[in-house]
Design a protein that fits this description.
By secondary structure, this protein is of the alpha/beta class. It contains twelve helices and ten strands. It has one domain: Rossmann fold (3-Layer(aba) Sandwich). α2 packs across α11 and α7 runs parallel beside α9. The radius of gyration is 19 Å and the shape is globular. Bound molecules: 2-acetamido-2-deoxy-beta-D-glucopyranose (4 copies). The site of one 2-acetamido-2-deoxy-beta-D-glucopyranose (NAG) has 3 residues, from α9. One 2-acetamido-2-deoxy-beta-D-glucopyranose binds next to loops.
């Protein structure tokens, strides 16, 4: 149903299919992106209901022609900047916006705002469902160009994944403070499921993974307000650190057991902590409140069509109560692409052989 709707709408607007700049330096055959609102470029526009949507102004106000695309920010997000660094002419389009399945295999973004590793929220496209959509694409690719060629194509493709934040916030918000034993059990289940999902992608042909760790999510404006009395929520930040630690162990283990599996883990937690410790060095005058919203920290309501928003948007780390601004995403993308201290064991640039 959702897919049908996506196809119909996409056919109506059509034409905007991505193309890639040809050239000797383009070693990445395709980019496939998975994850949550940090990565969504418009899939949620095609879902029923009003939850987890950003396809109205002032979202996108700094996008070309101030277009609200469904990205949860004022302009581009991290995937857009990574695609640009890799010399892709356009960012991989939202899966539900692509009118012809055969086009999707050339690069596509499955991410959906509100989704997580677990299938908790039914108003989004879960990571499991995103992977099922990708599976369909690989089947068509194999039919079209043959198994061997498909394997070679996919082995040179880049898989971007940014997830886990919604699972952590959901756990904390729904169950309150737990003891360390329970936290560890939760992180173990979460990263166990994540491991299965990464293995599934590997089985489908994925080889090069760039995984964005969860950031200092306890400091996002909505959680500061809801749980921290205005301060960062240390329990949530601790869970985020635990998730990152366990995820790195999973990735290391997959790389040592699965032939050809390689990865870049981007420690956005450490990187953003650094940015927050010296915000002015990175051009930010406000790292606490949202640019768009209302009330305390501009985080008492979501960013709506009638919300007020700041004029110096590049000086705010947060665009709305839950999401970074374009300026924030750009920094994250640069750290991922070539920030050797924060991307390990290699940067995305190194991962793709540039
Ligand atoms: C989503 O879950 C809620 C609560 O569990 C349920 O009431 C609702 O019908 C579900 N919606 C869909 C589309 O499955
Ligand atoms: C943690 O909480 C669980 C469930 O309430 C309990 O069974 C367990 O003994 C607690 N562990 C510690 C170390 O307090
Ligand atoms: C967070 O983790 C640190 C150690 O990593 C611990 O000392 C501290 O008590 C934790 N804080 C909370 C609020 O859980
Ligand atoms: C903005 O619109 C929402 C409904 O979408 C409404 O609840 C709110 O009161 C409006 N705010 C202002 C400042 O008009």
């Amino acid at each position: 149903m959702e897919r049908m709707m996506g196809l119909l709408l996409a056919a109506a607007f059509s034409a905007a299919l991505f193309t890639r700049t040809a050239g000797a330096s383009t070693v990445v055959t395709a980019i496939y992106a998975f994850g949550d609102s940090s990565t969504d470029v418009g899939n949620n526009n095609f879902l029923p209901g009003n939850q987890a949507k950003a396809n109205f102004p002032p979202n996108g106000i700094d996008f070309p022609r101030s277009r609200p695309t469904g990205r949860f920010t004022n302009g581009y997000n991290w995937v857009d900047f990574v695609a640009k660094k890799l010399k892709f002419k356009k960012s991989p389009p939202a899966y539900l916006s692509v009118s012809n399945d055969a086009q999707a295999y050339r690069s596509v973004n499955f991410a959906s705002g509100g989704s997580g590793i677990f299938d908790a929220a039914n108003f989004t496209i879960s990571l499991n469902q995103q992977i099922k959509y990708f599976k369909g694409i690989t089947h068509r690719l194999r039919t079209r160009i043959g198994g061997g060629a498909a394997d070679r194509f996919l082995s040179k493709s880049l898989f971007l994944v940014s997830t886990g934040g919604n699972d952590i916030v959901g756990y904390y918000a729904n169950f309150g403070l737990k003891n360390e034993t329970q936290n560890e059990a939760f992180i173990g289940q979460l990263t166990g499921q994540f491991r299965n999902q990464l293995e599934t992608l590997y089985d489908l042909g994925a080889r090069k993974f760039a995984v964005l760790g969860t950031t200092v999510i306890g400091c996002i404006p909505s959680l500061r307000l809801r749980f921290g009395g205005g301060k960062c929520v240390e329990e949530i930040n601790n869970l985020s650190r635990q998730f990152n630690k366990a995820t790195q162990i999973v990735l290391r283990d997959l790389a040592s057991t699965l032939k050809g599996f390689s990865y870049s883990f981007i420690n956005t937690y450490d990187f953003i902590s650094l940015v927050f410790s010296k915000p002015l060095n990175y051009g930010f005058t406000d790292i606490v409140s949202a640019c768009c919203g209302s009330g305390r920290l501009n985080a008492e309501s979501e960013c709506r069509s009638n919300s007020t928003y700041c004029s110096s948007r590049s000086k705010y780390f947060y665009w709305d109560l839950n999401h970074p601004s374009q300026a924030g995403y750009k920094l994250i993308a640069l750290a991922a692409y070539r920030g050797r201290r924060y991307a390990s064991p290699v940067t995305i640039k190194q991962l793709v052989g540039l």
